[in-house]
Amino acid sequence: MTPASDSAYPHLFTPLDLGFTQLRNRVLMGSMHTGLEDRARDFPRLAAYFAERAEGGVGLIVTGGFAPNVVGWLKPFGGKLSWPWEVRPHRQLTAAAHQHGAKICLQLLHAGRYAYHPLSVAPSKLKAPINPFIPRALSARGVERHIGDYANSARLAREAGYDGVEVMGSEGYLINEFIAPRTNARTDKWGGDARQRMRFAVEIVRRIREACGPDFIIIYRLSLVDLVTDGSDWEEIVLQAKAIEAAGATIINSGIGWHEARIPTIATSVPRGAFAGVTAKLKPHVGVPVVASNRINMPDVAERILAGGGADLVSLARPLLADPQWANKARAGRPDRINTCIACNQACLDHVFENKLASCLVNPRAAHETELVYRPTTSPKKVAVVGAGPAGLACATVAAERGHRVTLFDAGDEIGGQFNVAKRIPGKEEFHETLRYFRNRLDETGVEVRLGTRADADQLAGFDEIVLATGITPRRVDFPGADHAKVVDYLDVVLGRVTVGPRAAIIGAGGIGFDVGEFLSHAGPSPALDVKRWMTEWGVDATYESRGALSRPHPEPSPRKLWLLQRSPGRPGARLGKTTGWIHRATLKAKGVTMLGGVEYLGVDDAGLNIRFEGVEQRLDVDHVVICAGQESNRTLLDSLTAAGIRTHVIGGADVAAELDAKRAIDQGSRVAAAL
Ligand code: FAD
Ligand code: NAP
Ligand code: SF4
User: Fold this and answer.
1) Is 173 among the residues known to form the active site?
2) Residues near 377 by Cβ (< 8 Å), separated by ≥ 6?
3) Would you say the CB of residue 266 lies under 6 angstroms from ligand 3?
C-alpha cells in the first residue's frame, strides 16, 4: 500500500481498492448486535446510529447479524432477511451509510446451536455448553436448503443497497460448527476430513458470488483461533482460507474464539491487539485483503498492525460505540480527543445478553442517538457541578457543550473520583483513557475546574443550577474487632496506604472485592500489558499451530494467600457482569484464592478473622482483613443545601449507592445535563 501522506496514521487512512469499488480508509466497523436489528420499526434509530459512524469517517460498516432463515435466528423473532418484503426497511440503513461516504455490508449470521429457541439446527445433535436448547442435526437436504438461503439473503441484501455481505463463519456459529471436529460428527459429504467439513462454508461463498455477481463485497469471517478443544488446527485454517478465497470472497476477517471458549478475547484484561499476530500469520497465504480484529481501540495500535504488514484493514467494533468520531479524530491527528472503549462490556455485550438495548458505558448516546440529544441551549445558565467523578465529569462536559457556563468542583487534587482507584487494578489500565478523555473534554468545552476545593453552601451561592455528584463513602462493618489494626478498607489498600501481609481476607465479594482480589494476587506489571505473559497465563498457543490454539495455562503464582468472603449463600461473583464475571472468577481461582459464600463474621482479633462457615467456627490466620462491603451515598453537602432551601440535582453515587457503577453514573450525569 502507498500510505496516505496527510495523516498521522498514514496506513490507516490509505484507501483500499477492491477492484470494483474503493474503501476510503482501512477502518472497518465490526458487526455488533444492538437490539435495534430485530424490529423494522427500530430501523430509523438504527439508521441514525449508522449515520453518526459513517459521518465519523469509518470506511466500511458491517451491520449486526441477520439470519438467512427462521431456524438461524439468534433468538425468537430476531433480525432476519429472507423475504422480499423485508428488504425495504434496510434501504434506510444503506442510505444512511452512503450519504456520508461509507460502504456498508449486511452480516449474515446463522446462530446454529447458539440459537436461543427450540428450532435450532446444527451439523450434529450436540448441545452447546452455553445454551439449554439441543439442536436438531440438519439432513443432507437441509444443508443444501441452507446454502440456498444464504445466497437468497445475499441477493436481497444487494437489492436493499448493501455493498456486500459478511458471512459469519466464526465464533462457534453454524458455519464454524461445520468446520470444527468438535461439533461436526457427520459421516456424509458435509463431515469427515477438513475438506469435507469446510464444504458448507465454501459452497455458501460460491453460491453468494454466483447470485450477486462480481461487483459485490463478500467478507468471510474465518475463525483463526477457536480457543476450544477439538477446534481447527493451523493447517486446516490455511486450507479453509485458500478455499474461501477461491470460492469468491473479497476480504477475510479474523474471528477470534468461540462464545463457549473459556479464554477471554475482548475483555479489558486482554492486551490491546493481542490476536493481531494470527492475522499476520494468515496474510501470506492468501491474496485477498485480511482484517485484524479484537482489542484494537486506539489509532496507534491500528497503525502499528497495518504498517507492520500484518493486515490490510482493522476491525473496530466497540470503539465505535464509544466514539462515533473515532476515525475523524484519528485522521486529524487528535487521538487525545478519542473517547476510548475501555472494553468493560457493561453497556454493550452485557446488555445484549440481558435482552436490553446495547449502549456504551462511556457514551450513553450509542444506539440512543435519536433519544438522547445534546441540543445547544437557548438560555445559558451558570451551573455548578460538585464532584469530578464519572457522574460529575459527564454532567459538566455535556452541560458546557450545550452552552451553559459550568464550574466543576472537586475536593481532590485530580479529576476522576473512584476511577482513580479503579485504574490501579491490574487489567483496568484502560480507565486511564477515560480520565484523559474527560481532562481534554473539560478543556475543550470550557468548564472551569476548581480542584482541591471542597464545595460548601456558601461557594454555591449565585449559581442557577447546582448538580451534586459527590459520590460515595465506603461502608463500615460493625462486627467485633472491626476497629482492630488488621482491618483496612479497599481505598487504603489500592491507594497504597497500607502494605498487605502474605495472608489476607477480603470481606465482600462484589465488583470491588474481586478487583481487590486481583490487585493483591498479582505481582509485577499487569499481564494486560504483555501479550506473551497473558497468553501463557491463559493457555493460548502463541504459535497458533495446535488444535483450537490451546496450550496448557500457566498462571503466575499469587504473592499472597487470599480468602474472598461474602455473607450471602451461593457462589461469590454470581452477580458480576454477564460476559466478564466468569473471567474474574477464573482468574482468582487460578491464583488459588479461596472463595466462600454463606460466611458469618464473628470478629477480628490478634490471631486473625473468626468466621462461621457451614455451621463450623474457623479462624483464618490472616495479617489483614480488607473491607469491600459496598458503599453509602455521600450526602453531607446535600443535607446542608436542603436545610438552606437550595434546590439541587443529585446524580451518581450521591443519588443511589447500591448497585452503583460508572455506567449509571455517566448515563445519569449526561441525561441531567441534556435537560438543564
Ligand atoms: P465518585 O467517583 O465517587 O466521585 C465523587 C467525587 O466527588 C470525588 O472525586 C470526591 O472527591 C468529590 N466530592 C465529594 N464531596 C465533595 C465536595 N463537597 N466538594 C467537592 N468535591 C467533592 N464501575 C464500573 O462501572 N466498572 C468498573 O469496572 C468499576 N471498577 C471499579 C473498581 C474499583 C476499585 C472502584 C473503587 C470502583 C469501580 N467502579 C467501577 C465504580 C465506579 O468507579 C463508580 O461507580 C463511579 O466512580 C461513581 O461515580 P460518581 O461520580 O458518582 O462518584
Ligand atoms: P457491591 O457489589 O454492592 O458488593 C458489596 C459486597 O459487600 C457484597 O459482596 C456484600 O455481600 C458485602 N456486604 C454488604 N454489606 C456488608 C456488611 N455490612 N458487612 C459485610 N459485608 C457486606 O459493591 P462493591 O463491590 O463495593 O462495588 C460497587 C459498585 O462498583 C458495584 O455495584 C459494581 O457494579 C461496581 N464495580 C464494577 C466492577 C466491574 O468489573 N464491572 C468492578 C468493581 C466495581 P454480602 O452482603 O453477601 O456479604
Ligand atoms: Fe466499550 Fe464498555 Fe462502551 Fe462496551 S460499554 S463499547 S466495552 S466502553
Assistant:
1) yes
2) 402, 403, 404, 676
3) no
Judge if the beta carbon of residue 321 lies within 6 A of ligand 3. yes
Ligand 3, atom 6: nearest CA belongs to which residue? 318
Please state the atom number of ligand 1 nearest to the C-alpha of residue 491. Answer: 36
What pLDDT digit, counting tens, does each position of 338-351 carry?
999 999 999 999 99
Place of cell 492486551: 271
| Ligand (nearest to CA of 466) | 1
pLDDT tens-digit map of 45-86: 999 999 999 999 999 999 999 999 999 999 998 999 999 999
Write down the CATH superfamily of domain 16-353.
Aldolase class I (3.20.20.70)
Mean pLDDT of the chain: 96
pTM of the model: 0.96
How far apart are the CA of 280 and the centre of ligand 2, in A? 42
Q: With a cut of 50, which residues of the chain have pLDDT below it?
A: none
The vertex-665 CA angle with 660 and 671, nearest 5°, equals: 140
Q: Per-domain residue ranges for the chain?
A: 16-353, 382-473+633-675, 480-523+558-629
At residue 2, the pLDDT reads: 59
pLDDT of residue 639: 86
Task: Name the E strands within 59-151.
Answer: 60-66, 103-108, 121-122, 136-137
Write down the pLDDT at residue 631.
94
Helix (H) or strand (E) holding 10: none
Q: Exposed, middle or buried, 602 (CB in 10 Å: 0-12/13-18/19+)?
A: middle
Judge contact between 220 and 244, C-beta under 8 A.
yes
What's the 508 CA to ligand 3 centre distance in angstroms? 26
Q: Which ligand is nearest to the CA of 459?
A: 1
Among protein residues, the one whose CA lies closest to atom 43 of ligand 2: 511
Question: Which CATH architecture is the domain 382-473+633-675 placed in?
Answer: 3-Layer(aba) Sandwich (3.40)
341 lines ligand 3 (CB under 6 A): yes
**Across 597-676, where does the E strand assignment appear?**
599-605, 608-613, 616-620, 624-627, 631-633, 649-650
> Which atom of ligand 2 lies closest to the CA of 490?
26
Amino acid at 61: I
